[in-house]
Amino acid sequence: SPAVSRAVGKCQDHFGFAEPFTAHDLRRTFITQCREMGADPAHIDRVVNHVEQSVSGRSYDQHRYLREKRLVLAQWESRLALMMEGRVDLAGQIVPLASGEV
User: Fold this and answer.
1) What are the tens digits of pLDDT across the range 68-87?
2) Which of 66, 76, 68 is nearest to 34 (CA)?
3) Is the pTM of this model over 0.90?
4) I need a labelling partner for 49 at 20 to 30 A (CA). Which of 32, 56, 63, 93 fits?
5) Alpha-carbon distance 55 to 44, whole Å?
6) DSSP string covering the chain
């Protein structure tokens, strides 16, 4: 959404990231990391609001999958905590801050 893109831009300006990134980059990172954790791809898609392509999924399935979304987000929360503790190998996946910024 435009609001998310503006927020990402403001964060980049504030924190001085050396390399620019987009809201789409954040979505891609989230999806990739969740799949690496073993989260169900269908539930990850629901978290990022991907639309089910089948007729039954698009038209008939009105279930909101809140429990499944919460499970993926709880796994993501745990993953972020491990990242912050330095317990996840992120070699080659880190975007550096501009020099002198922190």
Assistant:
1) 999 999 999 999 998 888 88
2) 76
3) no
4) 93
5) 20
6) -HHHHHHHHHHHHHHTBSS---HHHHHHHHHHHHHHHT--HHHHHHHTTPPP-SHIIIII-----HHHHHHHHHHHHHHHHHHHTT-S--TT-PPPBPTT--
